[in-house]
């Protein structure tokens, strides 16, 4: 590192070689995580194979203690209260820590408990964002993006402040961690970070107007007896007016609760809607397999086969029929991957009508009735609304 202020004349052009990491350096988080991991493993905890920030310890009586760490923010949970109390005491002896009690606020996310379940929202974060942008008194919007909205680039448009645009979109990306209803809209506006125009800023403001309508909406996790992992996949074929690439969308439910979702522009141009849907299916299957491994790290079992709901019969036919080589040789890797999983019986791909396809909200702008239907099926609720 460079010499501290006041020592420049003594050191000249020389630099200091560090013997240990200092707070604020680029390698400090990695060094701290290695140090913390070594300590946690010494206490008998196992590091997760699916997520290296997850640590678990199962007792002989079948109880489990779970630790999740994000840099220096730590969450402890599980039904082994004795082990959790002992771990907190040992961590206090090793590090300087502060016990904040029951989880209520974590990384900008608010956690609330009730008889119905556990809700996770970002109401304060949303209201702060609306206040910062001066949109707290705006006219609310019913949907985060206009129906069939197609944003592109045009030379006759007026450019806007790039730094302000990037800052706003970055905050919306973080907000989408608990708001799958804005994921597609945020995915669209994030494609124009390098050269935003007025039309793109209007789309960002549309998202803010929608958030004004429902600032407290968030995820609800309910206790169920279902031990299943289910995914819904969809795509919008050639939806981009710039390069005609398709948009993939999927959402996965673990034990009946929405856990992960994604809206992503595909990296290559699809030659047909079936091909676009097929690539989306591959993403959904990968996510299901990863979630199955997460449950394994948590010492939990799930029912098989894993279900992947798709509304495209052609894509389902390609997955089940290995003969159609001429029409599928350009998606050969995805075809082999999906067919292998089908043959092993680890997944199944039931057909679902487009009217019941929940992932529709992650691939295109919808009219309010269909949008509200999809959002309600995702399990999003606003606990701050009067009952």
Automatic annotation (TrEMBL):
Residues 1-146 form the Reverse transcriptase Ty1/copia-type domain. Keywords: Kinase, Receptor, Transferase. The keyword rRNA-binding does not apply. The keyword Kinase applies. Coiled coil: none annotated. One of its GO terms (molecular function) is kinase activity. It comes from the Eukaryota. This is Cysteine-rich RLK (Receptor-like protein kinase) 8. It comes from Cucumis melo var. makuwa.
């Amino acid at each position: 590192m460079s010499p501290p202020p006041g020592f420049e004349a003594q050191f000249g052009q020389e630099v200091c070689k560090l013997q240990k990491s200092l707070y604020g350096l680029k390698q400090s988080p990695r060094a701290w995580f290695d140090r913390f991991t070594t300590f946690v493993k010494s206490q008998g905890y196992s590091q997760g194979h699916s997520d290296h920030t997850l640590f678990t310890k199962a007792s002989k009586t079948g109880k489990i203690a779970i630790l999740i760490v994000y840099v220096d923010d730590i969450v402890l949970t599980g039904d082994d209260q004795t082990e959790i109390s002992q771990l907190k005491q040992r961590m206090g002896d090793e590090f300087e820590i502060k016990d904040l009690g029951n989880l209520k606020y974590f990384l900008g996310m608010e956690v609330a408990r009730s008889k119905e379940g556990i809700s996770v929202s970002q109401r304060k974060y949303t209201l702060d964002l609306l206040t910062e942008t001066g949109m707290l008194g705006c006219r609310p919007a019913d949907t985060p993006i206009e129906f069939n909205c197609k944003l592109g680039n045009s030379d006759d448009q007026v450019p806007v402040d790039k730094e302000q645009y990037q800052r706003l979109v970055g905050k919306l990306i973080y907000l989408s961690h608990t708001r799958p209803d804005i994921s597609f809209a945020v995915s669209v506006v994030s494609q124009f970070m390098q050269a935003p125009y007025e039309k793109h800023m209007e789309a960002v403001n549309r998202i803010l107007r929608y958030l004004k309508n429902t600032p407290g909406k968030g995820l609800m996790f309910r206790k169920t007896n279902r031990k299943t992992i289910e995914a819904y996949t969809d795509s919008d074929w050639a939806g981009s007016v710039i390069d005609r690439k398709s948009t993939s969308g999927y959402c996965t439910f673990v034990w009946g609760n929405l856990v992960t979702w994604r809206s992503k522009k595909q990296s290559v141009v699809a030659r047909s809607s079936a091909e676009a849907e097929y690539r989306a299916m591959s993403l959904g299957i990968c996510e299901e397999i990863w979630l199955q491994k997460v449950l394994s790290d948590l010492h939990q079992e799930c029912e098989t086969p894993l279900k992947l709901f798709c509304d495209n019969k052609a894509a389902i036919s390609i997955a089940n029929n290995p003969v159609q080589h001429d029409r599928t040789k350009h998606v050969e890797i995805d075809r082999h991957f999906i067919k292998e999983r089908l043959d092993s019986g680890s997944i199944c791909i039931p057909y679902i009508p487009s009217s019941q396809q929940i992932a529709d909200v992650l691939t295109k702008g919808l009219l309010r009735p269909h949008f509200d239907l999809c959002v309600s099926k995702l399990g999003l609720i606003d606990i701050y609304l009067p009952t």
